[in-house]
């Protein structure tokens, strides 16, 4: 899922990409990895993780519950943190598309606390599809983010 910067409509920042007319296209670097940061986060269960992984997302992305079937939240575009990722062969990510029309497909999901619920309130903990993350390739885990 090598994502390329959108050349049409002159977008130069992640925020501008979503405003472009036509098909929304990933605006990230063609390569790179997520950045680890010591930033403790507490899961709803009380478990604490000390390190999170910041990765870039190129547009507002859906966040799903534990079963990966129901979307309950949204994550805004930009640099966002994730605690881990998991693969679920039975639940493919929504397909996203690059500027050249090629598709991004995956079955890896990143665990995070979303920005906003679908009802407009605070977001919930859940899984974001890897197809919305700039780093990574089709059918591969996002580099440098540990398994859940």
UniProtKB/TrEMBL annotation:
<protein>
    <recommendedName>
        <fullName>Secreted protein</fullName>
    </recommendedName>
</protein>
<keyword id="KW-0732">Signal</keyword>
<feature type="signal peptide">
    <location>
        <begin position="1"/>
        <end position="29"/>
    </location>
</feature>
């Amino acid at each position: 899922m090598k994502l390329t910067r959108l050349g049409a409509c002159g977008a130069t920042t992640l925020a501008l990409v979503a405003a472009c007319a036509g098909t929304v296209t990933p605006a990230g670097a063609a390569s790179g990895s997520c950045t680890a940061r010591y930033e403790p986060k507490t899961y709803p269960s009380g478990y604490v993780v000390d390190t999170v992984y910041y990765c870039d997302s190129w547009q507002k992305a859906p966040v799903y519950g534990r079963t990966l079937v129901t979307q309950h939240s949204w994550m805004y575009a930009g640099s966002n943190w994730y605690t881990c990722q998991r693969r679920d062969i039975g639940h493919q990510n929504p397909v996203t598309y690059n500027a050249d029309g090629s598709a991004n497909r995956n079955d890896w999901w990143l665990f995070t606390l979303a920005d906003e619920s679908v009802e407009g309130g605070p977001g919930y903990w859940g899984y974001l599809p890897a197809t919305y993350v700039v780093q990574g390739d089709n059918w591969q885990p996002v580099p440098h983010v540990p398994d859940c």
